[in-house]
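A student in our group prepared the protein record below, which I am reviewing. This is what I was given:
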Amino acid sequence: TGAASGGRVNRRPFFRLGLASLSTGTERAGYVLMDAYMRRDRKLRARVYPAFGLPLAVYITALVRRDLHSPFVLSPDGGPVALQEIMGLYCIFVSLFFATAMTQSEQWKASWIFHAAPIGDPARVLQGARRLVVWRYLVPFFVLLFVLLTFGMPVLGAATFVLMVFPLCLTAFSILSMASPHMPLSQEIERGRQGRQIAFFMVLGTTMIPLMIIFQLLLVERPAAAGPMLAALWALAWLSERVVGARLRRSLSGGEFGG
């Protein structure tokens, strides 16, 4: 994968960090493959960037209106959950979008190569592709979000909010990957899948909003609980990643091409 990841690609710091986090050549191959596809597919980019643009635009508007607040204080209107928490849920939805988009392609029949190639563990290709999504899109997005939030609240509050939403995002990404285990770019694009995504998001929202309220009230009443709470959320993200790895290995081993 060295040649494939050379040149302009190699100069991207987040790309290099993600590539360095992978332990096998098969994972790196999936990582570089997904990167090349996402850089060249204009239709996918046309869907990706607006998905990120909406929450960023809302946060910038809230910054101008001085509506942002630290997780350690109640929202300006006195309620436990403000617009920034609701948009945090939308950020989680973005990860669900990626979990679906990374397995679909208009050239999905070309995925026969995965079944013809002598790959000992096909799940590692998908794991590499998933890691690319995290490092190419999610990590830069949350870094930018952190910078924006620091203009409207203390640095500790901005860091706490980002470190609370990011592991929830990773956990949701893992859950949908387990629910739909397919090789990268191996599925035909389904026009009706967007409706299922929205339905899944609604179910997720009804679960996560009460959780966000509990987190908010807990941080207001007991700021010292931030450390254990964040540790638990990141442990959940780590555990979900381990579980999805085992699930993908069982689902993708011995799979046959359906094209």
